[in-house]
């Protein structure tokens, strides 16, 4: 119950209420984009400042290696499960969405840990960045294999690295090289890593100079952004009405399974409690911005409502309201 009394969470709930009653309350898209960039920049700076203080060591490299392993394994697990109830392209797209991460869920989790005096490393911002792209790459491999299997039946042709529908009569899909480049050079990811590097280089001097920006304003900006997310989550419910009923269960059970996988790895690798909880949160989160933006062009065969509606309307609210406290409880019970 204490988590619901946090102003940040209450603003999210208020946004969901306003959206559900069809209020005309709206955050302009440009403001929402600015808030997203601000939060990533501030998070990267905080991580860089903390990393400058702690330095690099095995206790930092181990969580990063664990993050990379999770980033590749979760979409594989997701595809294996989802292809039993969905057509292959839909399964690959949804597996990519749930295999990637949500920066806002991660940032909300860091605030939860700060509030409860649970220490975690600044390098976890880098872990988040490392986990964003692998799921996209895995899904593109799946899509490429699936298209090759359907060449004869669908009349596809391959031209200069791009797949062309209808033997040259349909729209050309972007080449694999172009999509991979976009995934690895996504602006939000580069901003996070750039801010992390700047924080690392400037250390305590930079921290003191940027405190009003990356410290004092942070929670207010997060509350404003979660208000916007609440509005979007409520309005995404109409998309969820068009997905198979079995996916409602996956939208909750899938993240829980991924979080438990992260917990087992953290226990085996002796990763500390704070870092372990954040790895659980990352594993349980799903991308509702970066991955859908890529998949719209890279995998048009998949139904958009599946990989946009579920993460934002069901998984994101679940994680913010119940998942984060649950992962923190499990982490505190199992990890040191």
From TrEMBL:
It comes from the Bacteria. InterPro entries: Sbt_1 (IPR010293). The chain crosses the membrane at residues 6-25, 37-54, 60-82, 94-113, 125-146, 183-202, 217-234, 246-270, 276-295, 307-330. The keyword Cytoplasm does not apply. Pfam families: Sbt_1 (PF05982). Keywords: Membrane, Transmembrane, Transmembrane helix. This is Sodium-dependent bicarbonate transport family permease. It comes from Noviherbaspirillum denitrificans. The lineage of its organism: Bacteria, Pseudomonadati, Pseudomonadota, Betaproteobacteria, Burkholderiales.
């Amino acid at each position: 119950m204490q988590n619901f009394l946090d102003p940040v969470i209450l603003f999210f709930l208020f946004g969901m209420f306003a959206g559900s009653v069809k209020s005309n309350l709206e955050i302009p898209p440009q403001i929402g984009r600015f808030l997203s960039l601000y939060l990533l920049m501030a998070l990267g700076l905080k991580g860089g400042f903390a990393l400058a203080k702690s330095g690099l060591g095995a206790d930092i490299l181990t969580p990063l290696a664990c993050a990379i392993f999770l980033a590749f394994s979760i979409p594989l697990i997701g595809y294996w499960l989802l292809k039993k109830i969905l057509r292959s392209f839909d399964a690959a797209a949804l597996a990519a969405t749930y295999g990637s991460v949500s920066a806002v869920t991660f940032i909300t989790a860091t605030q939860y840990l700060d509030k409860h005096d649970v220490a975690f490393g600044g390098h976890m911002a880098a872990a988040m960045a490392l986990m964003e792209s692998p799921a996209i790459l895995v899904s593109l491999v799946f899509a490429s294999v699936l298209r090759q299997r359907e060449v004869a039946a669908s009349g596809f042709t391959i031209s200069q690295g791009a797949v062309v529908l209808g033997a040259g009569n349909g729209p050309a899909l972007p080449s694999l090289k172009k999509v991979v480049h976009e995934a690895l050079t996504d602006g939000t990811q580069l901003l996070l890593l750039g801010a992390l590097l700047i924080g690392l280089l400037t250390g305590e001097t930079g921290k003191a100079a940027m405190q009003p920006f990356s410290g004092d304003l942070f929670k207010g900006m997060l509350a404003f952004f979660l208000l916007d997310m609440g509005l979007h989550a409520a309005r995404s419910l109409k998309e969820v009405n068009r997905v198979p009923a079995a996916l409602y269960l996956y939208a909750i059970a899938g993240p829980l399974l991924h979080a438990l996988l992260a917990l087992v790895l953290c226990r085996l690798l002796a990763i500390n409690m704070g870092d372990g909880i954040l790895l659980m949160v990352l594993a349980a989160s799903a991308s509702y911005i970066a991955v859908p933006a890529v998949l719209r062009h890279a995998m048009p065969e998949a139904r958009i409502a599946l990989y946009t509606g579920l993460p934002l309307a069901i998984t994101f609210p679940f994680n913010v309201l119940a998942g984060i406290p649950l992962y923190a409880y499990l982490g505190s019970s199992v990890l040191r």
